[in-house]
Amino acid sequence: MREYDVIVVGSGVWGAATTWALAKRGYRVLGLDQYLPPHNKGSHGGETRLARLSNSSGEPIQLTIETLDLWRALGREVDQQILLETGTMFVGQAGSRWFDSTLENLAESPFDYELETPAKAMERIAGVKIMPNESVIWEPAGNVILVESAIKGLHLAARRLGAEFEFNRAVTDWTASPRGVKVATVESKYRAQKLVIAVGAFSETFLGLNLPLIVERQVVFNFPMIRDSHVLPSFYFAAPPGSEAAPSYGCSEPDGTYKVSIAGTGNCISPDEMTQNVTHAELERVQDVVMERLPILDKEPTKSMVCMWSEVSDGSWLLDKHPSYNNVIVGAGCNGRGFRYGAVIGEMLADLVEEKGSSVLNMFGMKRFDDY
Ligand SMILES: Cc1cc2nc3c(=O)[nH]c(=O)nc-3n(C[C@H](O)[C@H](O)[C@H](O)COP(=O)(O)OP(=O)(O)OC[C@H]3O[C@@H](n4cnc5c(N)ncnc54)[C@H](O)[C@@H]3O)c2cc1C
């Protein structure tokens, strides 16, 4: 049986970032994944993720600064472009929860931004429709993250520091005791001092902890540009005041198309039910956004992609020790902003392995739920 200091189950963005963080700290680490990441059977599918500097959900600004620094450091380490600085526009009416919280967050941050009128914003980007009663928050340094470069970069950087990965190896069993952990796949058995579980949407199935977690199906479509193929900034269109609906959003993709989706439509699934089939109703909802907001795009998509994210009941992440085992660390509840924060979440999960607590980590602990 092979032995490691730490085994990390899941080598998507959180698990891969944790493996890199632990390898940097000198641990002998093994990363295991049931598939070959990047893939489109979990939460990181597709080519891109938006990485605005603002947030609407109360994560400390320091985490944004640290995660972007880590992505840049990874890009230098593996000599790959991971972040594309396209700028981000957040469009909405004053009084909309998402719009107001974004503005408040930026006002407290050191990041550059401008509050623009619809006319000024439409001058900046011809072919985008902004309503007269809306305002636009322009973040010039908003980014798009290239998923494949990011995930493969994390694997490469971790390997260079001695970490090992085994892909297409589903973990079928694990046990923990104060003496260490044992992990089994169909092919092999492994032993380690500590275990990190970062299996994304599969967390509930894998952990069986009855966590307050749901898994939501998400659908994105790519549309060709009608006029030219210059890189557009990323967009968020906030729902009007009084609506709790999450924004629709979009960004330029490396193939010259523009990806558009509507976040958090409430379509809960079990992770093994996810297929890449899309319905006509799902397409029509996104086409409505394209026709209303982005007439610069042709309304017939070139492709679609289905993905799923998991969400804890309070919308925040779950980063903590397993309630029954001190040497098992759990990262779950990735939600719709878990990719851009993935690099710093890897560091936080590595801190938990080293039993380093912090006030920031306390925000994401299990104790906030009554049952744990
Ligand atoms: C459509 C969509 C758009 C999004 N847009 C954004 C965005 O713009 N910005 C942003 O920051 N975030 C975004 N997100 C969220 C982000 O992609 C996720 O938060 C992030 O990918 C979560 O990473 P993860 O490592 O937790 O999960 P994953 O990347 O899914 O990794 C989990 C891994 O665990 C493996 N695994 C599961 N079970 C086992 C097992 N038994 N044995 C071994 N391995 C196992 C899986 O194969 C998988 O590779 C979006 C998500 C979706 C679906």
CATH class category name of the largest domain: Alpha Beta
Unreliably modeled segments: none
Cofactors, ions and other ligands in the entry: flavin-adenine dinucleotide
CATH superfamily of the largest domain: FAD/NAD(P)-binding domain
Shape, per Cα inertia axes: globular
Question: Could you state the order of secondary-structure elements as H and E?
Answer: EHEEHEEHEHEEHEEEEHEEEEHEEEHH
Tally of helical runs? 9
The CATH topology of the largest domain is FAD/NAD(P)-binding domain
Radius of gyration, taken over Cα atoms and rounded to an integer in Å = 21 Å
Description:
It is a single chain. This protein is of the alpha+beta class and about 375 residues long. Helices cover about 25% and strands about 30% of the residues. The strands form three sheets. Strands 1, 2, 9, 10, 11, 12, 18 and 19 form an eight-stranded mixed β-sheet that branches. It binds flavin-adenine dinucleotide. Flavin-adenine dinucleotide binds next to helix 1, strand 3, strand 13 and strand 17.
